[in-house]
Amino acid sequence: MANQFKMPEKGVPADTLLQRMESFKAKDINWPSGKFFGYVFYPGEDIYEVGKKTYTSFIATNGLNPSAFPSLRKMEAEVVSITANLLNGTEDVTGTMTSGGTESIMMAVLSAREWGAKNRKLKGIPEVLAPATAHPAFPKACHFFGIKYVEAPIGEDYRVNVAEMKKLITPNTVLLVASAPQYPQGVIDPVEDVAALALERGILCHVDACVGGYLLPFLEKGGVFLPKFDFRVPGVTSMSADTHKYGYAAKGASVILYRNRELRKGQFYIKTDWSGGIYGSPSFAGTRPGGAIAAAWAVLNYIGEERYVKMQMNAYHTARKIQEGVKAIPGLEILGNPDATVFAIASEKYDVHSIADEMSELGWYLNRQQLPPSLHIFVTDIHVGKEKMFLDDLAFAVKKAGAFSWENLKKNVQVNTVKGLKKMLPPSYFDKLMNMAGGGGADSGGHRKAAMYGMMGALKGTDKLDELVLDFIDKLNSPEDPVKEKS
After folding, report:
1. What is the distance between the alpha carbons of residues 242 and 434, in angstroms, rounded to a whole number?
2. Of 190, 203, 392, 464, which is the most exposed, with the fewest CB atoms less than 10 Å away?
3. Which residues of 359-384 are buried (b: 16+ CB within 10 A; e: fewer)?
4. Positive or negative torsion for Cα 328, 334, 337, 342
5. 383-427, pLDDT tens digit by residue?
6. Which of 370, 338, 333 is nearest to 158 (CA)?
7. How large is the average pLDDT for residues 267-289?
8. Which domains occur in the chain, in start order?
């Protein structure tokens, strides 16, 4: 089944291909509508067109060799410099562009490993210490680079508990992590305290501002009081900031910054004895698409500081209106005290995943979270003016999710059955039964996913959950059955 698609013997006309591709979009989220939160940062047609035109203008270029494309070298250097200035870096702060936040974080972790090997008397494998809410890119990087990943607990405010973090530092710790803001609840970790701890112990400190790097500085310029989170803080040695999030540039474009050039060298790779010549790479990727670099440069210059401040402040005020409206709906709450435009909706009375199902029926796309169960809201410029529509639909969805229906009954039966079987059956029998029941993968399709998330919660603590998710990812990254696709 995996190799069922073959290249056509003769090329397909462009018009036919474009029509076919348009039909593929039928199941995609309707991102121009603004009824989604996450994945797409749509800034409006004029900015979108600037990014699109500059990307295609440089679509054939490659950032691997700056001497071949000095235009890309110039634009990348200027994007890095703009980002460093925005985050209050001195003239020593330097960095590179990457394909996204994950690569930026991976480069910071790699650089910390290399720094530790040179500057710390390690007694074992190096360790990275991060809050439990830190982005999965950190443990992913540790997995790739042979580093031990250690999680520090968070407090009731969802910010990292620095006192507990301090207890987890060992002679092998090379990097402490803080987020500004963290993704799940949108709060800023106590960066000053984490960085001070890093300084005290003589280790590095990375601030993940992939979300906030092109948001928080403009909120400050707009008069919003925020705790210090950037290079103004002594002890902060690296930062990541995504230009393709709140910078509204084309994907994939992010920036990784370091306090100095010596730290940046830790992410470089060189091989001088290759028969193909001397090879040097500044980041994880070899070939680096010039279009992403050019589009980031163009969009940053096209929008400019004044318009960025206006756009981010509008999103901030919209987020505040939505939060107040959510609190006014009985049974719903906002987790923690979000600092900017990212937050999570939770409930002790209702199943939030059922609420998400009902919102999906109304055309909204909301990301679902766990620990605790919640719905993730990522307010951007496109949501300005849509707060009343969202809140009206949310109130309706809550009412429907709380009412009796065969759909809700079926979901509860499925979830409770899994919970009961998990308690009653020996692990081997339980796994066999789940294998028999799991033929359709983790998600059988459609808008409704509450039962799936409920069963995943019931399976926590078992190897079966990892197995189901791996199977789900495998299915997502395999070609669809042509018969199923046409039906």
Report:
1. 40
2. 392
3. bbebebbbbbbeeebbbbbbbbbbbb
4. negative
5. 999 999 999 999 999 999 877 454 554 445 444 444 454 555 455
6. 338
7. 86
8. 54-299 (3.40.640.10), 406-486 (no CATH)
- The neighbouring-strand residues paired with 151 are 130
| Cβ-Cβ contacts under 8 Å for 70 (sequence gap 6 or more) | none
Cα–Cα distances in angstroms (integers) from residue 117 to residues 139, 189, 195, 445, in the given order: 19, 28, 21, 48
- Rounded to whole angstroms, the Cα distance separating 173 from 124 reads 10
Q: pLDDT tens across 34-55, in order?
A: 888 888 888 889 999 999 999 9
> In whole angstroms, how far apart are CA 149 and each of 14, 143, 144?
48, 8, 11
Place of tokens 């919640």: 374
Contact 296, 97 (CB under 8 A): yes
| CA pair distance 143, 102, nearest whole angstrom | 13
Which residues on neighbouring strands pair with residue 177, listed in sequence order? 206
**CA–CA distance, 238 with 94 (Å, rounded to integer):** 9
Q: How far is CA 299 from CA 187, 216, 367, in A?
A: 27, 18, 27
**What is the widest separation between alpha-carbon atoms in the chain?**
70
> Looking at this protein, which amino acid is placed at residue 137?
A
Angstrom distance (rounded) from CA 102 to CA 327: 33
Cα gap 432→437, rounded to integer Å: 9
